[in-house]
Write a structure and sequence with these properties.
Elements (H helix, E strand, L loop, with lengths): L16 H9 L9 H19 L3 E3 L2 E3 L6 H19 L12 H10 L6 H7 L3 H4 L3 H13 L3 H9 L4 H7 L21 H20 L1 H24 L5 H18 L5 H10 L2 H12 L1 H6 L1 H10 L4
Antiparallel strand pairs: 1-2
Helix pairs in contact: 1-8, 2-16, 4-11, 7-10, 10-11, 10-12, 10-13, 11-13, 12-13, 12-16
């Protein structure tokens, strides 16, 4: 089969007008330290890393950035990885959390989490919502003040990556399938669910540990697992590429030191990523599959660099 040129991969297009407007404002998180100028510098530098190592940016002149060279190969590999990851995990139980499958959690997180993020976390952390009276406000604080409401959309607006179901026909991806998601109506990279859930887990741990160190320790692993499982399930369902989550993890790790004084958060986030289902799956594929190793050479190196101590 003749290889496609990058220009033959279409951009996603405009988002819903309110999200497009929110993304265009390029506002920093409320807890950002350093002012608007440093925020713009941080955003530009982070977008530049993604542009050159993971996925290029799109403008009227087409795809630009170092990642343009591998975007078609990465998409082909990603579509194959989605199928394998889906087959391995989607219908499996999510750890020991009440016998609920990842598929069922995907449906819950896609629908209910628009209004109530506390519900799926409560399944992972039985009794947690009752241990602190303002647990829901903790999650809302993570979304509004540690990320900003439109952080994911700010990156999506520039990267314009088409969703897997858009690219699958163009690339002839045999065996690829996806599950309908009402929240899959934005460009694919970065994954909003991946970065939002991970930051919520970070902030819940931060608040719990400061309130009661023993309580924070008790729920540490469950928070870490939900914080990555939520984003991983979007890959299992075929609505995100694995490298979308890699992009989200890079953004998260580059952000936490600018919105937290708590030195425990970066190690918490890096450990959560290393122990996630998708990271371990990708790590094994990068080690054993030459095609994955080649396509992921720059994205994987970028992520590993981001995971190093600040």
């Amino acid at each position: 089969m003749k290889e496609l040129e990058p220009e033959q991969l279409p951009p996603y297009g405009f988002m819903w007008k309110d999200w497009q407007a929110g993304a265009s404002a390029n506002a920093p998180p409320s807890d950002w330290k350093g002012g608007a100028r440093k925020w713009r510098q941080w955003f530009s530098a982070t977008l530049g890393l993604l542009r050159d190592d993971v996925w290029p940016v799109y403008s009227a002149r087409g795809w630009k950035g170092g990642a343009r060279a591998h975007m078609v190969a990465l998409t082909r590999v990603d579509l194959d990885l989605i199928r394998e990851f889906q087959e391995a995990y989607l219908e499996a139980e999510a750890g020991s959390f009440g016998g609920i499958t990842h598929r069922a959690y995907f449906d819950l997180e896609d629908y209910d989490c628009t209004y109530n993020w506390e519900k799926p976390i409560g399944q992972y952390c039985a009794g947690l919502s009752g241990s602190t009276s303002d647990f829901l406000s903790i999650l809302e604080h993570a979304m509004k003040d540690k990320l900003s409401l439109f952080l994911a959309e700010q990156f999506k607006m520039h990267l314009q990556r088409p969703r897997p179901f858009q690219a699958s026909m163009l690339l002839g991806a045999r065996g690829y399938t996806y599950y309908w998601a009402k929240t899959a109506v934005t460009p694919s990279a970065i994954s909003g669910h991946a970065v939002q859930a991970a930051m919520m887990a970070c902030h819940a741990y931060h608040r719990l540990h400061r309130h009661d160190a023993e309580l924070g320790t008790r729920y540490r692993k469950a928070l870490q697992q939900w914080g990555t499982d939520c984003g991983d399930r979007r890959v299992m369902a075929g609505v995100h590429y694995p490298s979308d989550n890699v992009s989200s993890w890079i953004v998260l790790l580059r952000l936490v030191d600018h919105v937290y004084d708590d030195r425990l958060i970066r190690p918490f986030a890096a450990e959560a990523i290393r122990n996630s289902l998708l990271y371990r799956f990708l790590e094994a594929k990068v080690r054993t599959d030459p095609a994955v190793r080649d396509a992921y050479a720059k994205p994987w190196a970028c992520l590993r660099t981001a995971m190093k101590p600040a």
